[in-house]
Amino acid sequence: MAETEPKEAREHRVVGEARWPMAVAVLAVIVMTILLPNSLIARPRWGVPLVEGLLLVAVMIGDPGKIDRRSRTVRTLSVTLIALLVGTTLWCTTQLIAELIQGGPATSSGGALLAAGGIVWLSNCLAFGLLYWELDSGGPAVRAHGLPAHPDFAFPQQLSPELAPKDWRPQFVDYMYLGFTSATAFSPTDIMPLRAWNKIAMMAQSAISLALLGLVIARAVNVLQ
Fold it and tell me: Which of 22, 127, 163, 199 has the least C-beta neighbours within 10 A?
């Protein structure tokens, strides 16, 4: 008869997620930022993307494969990378909104405006998704070793455990979904924020998305008429 696995081992099983989805999202934000017009990008043009790329390489070397190493150094590098990505997208968003109000090369034609607006909006979705993923419940490496009793986000699988497989953990795609729905619904949908920091972050993301979409659409209609 097979030996039954101890309850403690089942509760503390390490379930690390793959690193590549996060890496693809980071690279996507870097590439989209580079594709923006010069007037929307912080100078030097290649300086910030180069630093972001080096930080990504350092994080992947520090914890390759599945994310399960609880390292202060890797955690610091990862938080720095994502903070830089969020800061970069917010800078581009601020510059685009300023040009929408005052006029500028990025808003001079309907096609250029819609392209820049789409890139900035999607970059914000990815950057905030990365932020939620990195900060929720101590980060992905901590979550790999078990979910806390009092998490930062409440997912449907946590509220209804009978619907989730054993050892379920939120994965990167769950946070990308959260970033997208916060930017489109302007409010929480099925994932509830439980802490002050993520309520403020989701409120900021919704406000940015609302202002960006409203101004881009209004300006595009005016330009295309």
Answer: 163
- Exposed/middle/buried for residue 205 (C-beta within 10 Å: 0-12, 13-18, 19+): buried
Residue 165 has pLDDT above 60, yes or no: yes
User: Which residue, chain included where needed, has tokens 């034609």?
Assistant: 109
Q: Do strands 17-18 and 66-67 pair parallel, antiparallel, or not at all (unpaired)? A: antiparallel
Note the residue count of the chain.
225
Number of domains in the chain: 1
47 alpha carbon, distance to own chain's centre: 21
| Residue percentage of the chain with pLDDT more than 90 | 52
- Whether 123 is in a domain gets the answer yes
Per the domain annotation, does 76 fall within a domain? yes
The sign of the CA dihedral 48, 82, 87, 172 is: positive
Tokens standing for residue 178 = 């959260």
Q: Three-state DSSP class for 35? A: helix
Q: Note down the domain range covering 51.
A: 17-150+170-224
Could you read off the pLDDT of 9-20 as tens digits, one per residue?
445 678 889 999
**Predicted TM-score of the model (pTM):** 0.89
Q: 3 in a domain, yes or no?
A: no
Residue 2 domain flag: no
Q: How confident is the model at residue 8 (pLDDT cuts 50, 70, 90)?
A: very low
